[in-house]
Design goal:
- With 123 residues, this protein is mainly α.
- The chain is built from 4 helices and 2 strands, in the order ββαααα.
- It has helices at residues 14-31, 37-56, 62-77, 86-122, and strands at 4-5, 8-9.
- The protein has a two-stranded antiparallel ribbon with strand order 1-2.
- The protein is elongated and about 70 Å long.
- The relative contact order is 0.10.
């Protein structure tokens, strides 16, 4: 289930679902070992595929942007060590945040113009 606004559930985005899958695979790898080497290799490979998908999936909502930063934090905090994706995910997350901030600025400017025009029309 996604976030709620006025008690109505918002659908989860693709990035959020991928992030849940990534966490689940990490939990499997960390909490169920020892296990057969081939099984562990498969889980680790799947985790890498999901991590790459999270890194490559464009953020289309503000929640996606936040999830990119959450994923980055998990990569940084991973006890297995540094990930080759850290800087790439950081770059994607910052670029996505920049896009959303520009759109917010644009919307605020339009609202200010509308308010000004409304005030002028009432004079």
């Amino acid at each position: 289930m996604g976030h709620t606004i006025d008690s109505e559930a918002m659908p989860e985005t693709g990035i959020r679902r991928l992030l849940k899958l990534y966490r689940g695979l990490n939990d499997l790898a960390n909490n169920l070992w020892p296990m057969p080497e081939q099984a562990m290799d498969s889980i680790i490979d799947a985790t890498g595929v999901i991590a790459r998908a999270i890194a490559d999936t464009p953020a289309t909502t503000k929640s996606d942007v936040a999830d990119k930063f959450r994923f980055l934090a998990e990569l940084i905090d991973d006890p297995a060590g540094a990930s080759s994706l850290e800087y790439e995910v950081l770059a994607h997350a910052l670029a996505s945040l920049s896009v959303w901030n520009k759109e917010d600025e644009h919307e605020r400017a339009i609202l200010a113009i509308r308010r000004t025009l409304g005030e002028v029309a009432t004079v």
